[in-house]
Structures are given as C-alpha cells and as structure tokens.
Description:
This protein is α+β, with helices and mostly antiparallel strands. The protein has helices spanning 2-12, 18-21, 46-49, 96-101, 112-118, 159-166, 170-173, 240-253, 268-282, 290-293, 299-309, 313-327, 333-347, 349-364, 367-376, 379-407; strands spanning 15-17, 22-27, 54-56, 58-59, 62-68, 74-79, 82-83, 130-139, 143-152, 187-198, 201-217, 221-231, 262-263. Strands 8-9-10-11-12-13 form a 6-stranded mixed beta sheet, covered by helices on one side. Strands 2-5-6 form a 3-stranded mixed beta sheet. The protein has a two-stranded antiparallel sheet with strand order 1-3. The longest helix is centred in the C-terminal third of the chain and has 29 residues, at 379-407.
Amino acid sequence: MAGVNTMEKKLAEYKCDTNEAICLKLVRFPEDVDDDGTTFHPEYSHQIFGDDEVAFGYKGLQIQLFYTAGNLSTLFKVKYSSKVTETFDCVEPDDVEGKIREIVPAGFTCNTDDFISLLEKEANFKPFGTLLHTYTVHSEEAGELTYQIHKADITCSGFQEYHERLQTFLMWFIETASFIDADDDRWDFFLVFEKYNKDGETLYATVGYMTVYNYYVYPDKTRPRVSQMLVLPPFQGEGHGAQLLEAVHRFYCSLPKVQDITAEDPSENYVKLRDYVLVKLCQGLPSFAVDKLHLGFSADMIKEAQDKLKINKKHARRVYEILRLRATDMSDEEKAREYRLEVKKRLFGPYRKNQRELTKMRKCLRPEELVSHMGQMDTQTQHEELEKSYQVVVEDYRRIIERLATQA
C-alpha cells in the first residue's frame, strides 16, 4: 500500500493546472513575445481539458497561443521541463497538442521566428466591414487612444478565416461557449479595433466582438438576438463593452424592420451592462422624465421605448425602476416604501405563479402530496426571499446609477 501511495504522489507531480499552463498573448512588437507582462491566462479550460482543468503527464507545462494583435495570425507551441514517459514506461501523458488542435484552425505556425516575421504583415491588416462608430479612451500611459466599431458579415473577404481564429478565445473566457455556424447569412458580426502607431504607420489591434443572429418575427419583422460578446482581457475594464453594446443597439434602432433586441441566455454581467446602456439611451425620452417616474410604469414608457429604441416591455420596466430609484429620496420613508413596493410587485411575479399552481394542485393531488408542495411555497420563506431579491436588485441599480454619474 505504501508503494501505491508513493507512486500516486510521484504521478501527481505531473499534473498541471491548464488555466495556468495556457499562455495567451496579443503581440504588436517583437519584444512582446518574451515579455511576461503581455501574457494573460484563461478563466476556463474545462471544455478542452475536462471539469478538473488539469493536463496530466508533464512538469512545467506551458501551452503558448500567441496571436498577432490585428489579424490574429497564430503561434502554437507546447513546452515542458519533463514528461512522465521519461520516468514511467507504462503511463501515457494527455495529448495536449491534439486537444488544442481541435479548436485552433489550421494555418498556425510552431516557429517563433516565423511568427515574428508575420508581424511585418500587420500593416496590411484593415478592419472588416462598415465603420459604425469611433470613440476615444484616455490612458495614463498612452494618452488618448482611438477605437473603432465595425459591422461585418461572412461575405467580407478574409473574414471567415479571421473569425475562426477570433472565436477560439470564447473557449477560454465564456463558461458555456460554443462555436457558431458562421456560414448562415443571418449572422451579424460587430468588431472593436484599437488604432495604434508603429514606425509611423497606423495599425489596428483586435479588442473584442459580438455576434448577433437575426430571427424572423411574423409577419415582416426581425428580432436580433445577441449570441456572444467578448472583450479580450487586456482591454477589459475600459468601457469597451458598453460602447459596443450601445453602437449595436443604435444600429438596429435605425432599421425599421427590427421588432426588438434580445440576448441568448445572458450572463449576470451582460444584464448589468445592458441595464446601463438602456438607461443611458432612455433617460432622455419624454415618457421617462423625472416628473413622470413617480406616477408608475406606464403604457407611454412601453410604447416609446419600443418605438424609438426597440426595447421590449421587460427591459423597459428595469430601466424605469433604475431611473425612479435615481429620482427617489430614499431617506424619505414614505417615498422609499412606495419604491420598494413598486419593485417588489414585479419581483413577486414568480411567487404569484406558484400560488396559481397551488390552486390547481388542490384539485388533483392527494392531501399528503399537497402538504409536501405547500411546504415548498411557505409564505414566510417567500417574503424572506422577496426581500433578499429586492436588496440585490437595488444594489445592482445603485452601481449603474453611480456609473452614469461618473460618465455625465
């Protein structure tokens, strides 16, 4: 038994955390290749390496996936200090290279010198599609930086190959990511690029992107649905997500055939970002004026948000609640109580549905079955959960209001 434990300990030395082992870079200059400061790592690798996010069979494993900043030409190398087969004859290491090849499209190089030579071609790279929006961000180090948002589709020359390289980042930063069938012409692609200077030339670096699928709505409308959105880690926290979402929203608002704009299985972070952008867009609408907010969520708000900004009723309701919170003196007990009841009225929806289901159950369940279901819908528990939900919602709303104040 002691021998088995010793063997297990020795084999455990050949386990590597794949989130640490995978080294990603967006390379602009040759010196970036050896600069650890430009390296970033995945948040997730379970889709490639399993739920444990571990690769077995190597010590000092490093999986290099380096991309040129604009065109995303790729260097792929696997390095390690030792391999399990050097010590144990009958133990097979994981096929790390094979797993990565499953998601990285053909055309990459494994030679660092060849990769560095590809940087010279970056000057030829130009953003795909149509320019929708330009904006600037102030950087302490670099001053004013200029960014562009472009709309592209699969017919753009070279875009399909570029997108295949770009979407590999999804696997590392979106927990439930999957690749899309980009051949379907109902996909729209929105891309963010940074303009930067290198040796007197203007070059473009990939910052992030969004994919949107255009669903048909009877009889003659479409419903764009956001599928994927990613700002690459070196650019996160700089406001690019909000700029991208607002530009996309404004683009679809300009199309008369669009019914409204939705998102597929949105994350909590996406919902907060959408709330911020929609409040920013709606706060100037007459129906959302401060003197209208205390009167409650109105049909005028629903209609104006829908007609002018393609915002559906559910999203317009959240916008109303945020703007009303901003306009409410929460130190005034009566006004605070009115606001709390207004929000809880919406939050109570799922609990009201449970009560309707309970009424139906009374007609068809035996007494002992009914008791077990009633236990799940205890009134006291409902009130406690409702209060918790309210506090979480208000906390999120306050953060959005604070962000709006800093942008004013």
